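assembly run, all chains below
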Amino acid sequence: MRDPQHPDPSEITLPRVLAALSDPIRLGLVRLLADGQERGWGELRAPVAKSTLSHHLKVLRDAGVTQTRQEGTRCFVQLRRTDLDTRFPQLMAALLSVAAADDIGGDVTAAR
Amino acid sequence: MRDPQHPDPSEITLPRVLAALSDPIRLGLVRLLADGQERGWGELRAPVAKSTLSHHLKVLRDAGVTQTRQEGTRCFVQLRRTDLDTRFPQLMAALLSVAAADDIGGDVTAAR
DNA sequence: ACCTTCATTCGACAATCAACGAACATCGAA
DNA sequence: TTCGATGTTCGTTGATTGTCGAATGAAGGT
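ok done. output:
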């Protein structure tokens, strides 16, 4: 378990973010995090193996969409809403609104 | 040259559109078409082979982002702005604004 | 008819991706 | 220190992607 690396706000690029959000599961994860609440890895329920979920979280993290924090053996993930809104004004709002309307990634939920 | 097929507005999905727009060249093409103006294939200048450009235009068309019209041997392409705005309110506006600010796909231009 | 122009399609290639199970590493608790 | 829980990494597999050049198909002009 290495230190997760996060790109600087200035390193966040539009094509990369769009690629990260072009997957229904990742879009579902982002929807789940849209309330700004930090979530534990263990809360996340998605219809994929845990290694696949780890991969998706890494893609989101590498794109600068989420931030991961470690506490002991557990990970907590959070949407980088402020950075994203600064970098891409109105984008997340529009995206989240559409994703909710179409229920994209609705099979991603949170337990607990 | 077969009849180009376009998805119905209801068939346009967010993940597909985001995937289509996650490529700098395609984003550049969309920026070029953002004024609503119809453009001839021959006007489009992008740093790729013509077969590659044709491929990118097909990806955009299949995702429902653009509309292609044939007139004789020539093709004209246009952004499906109304359909996109109906389906995804505010999304294109936010996207185009950011793409312009970052000059994503700036190497895609129009001659004539 | 023939040739030119224009755009798509084909075939090939290397690269990337989503997905899985298994192995590994790390930390807290027993 | 051994164990269990947690998350990452590895190796693989099948599918998709971006790219090119060459071949193909469709009009239009000569």
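The first helix of chain B runs from residue 14 to 20.

The first strand of chain B starts at residue 39 and ends at 40.

not gonna interpret more than that til we talk
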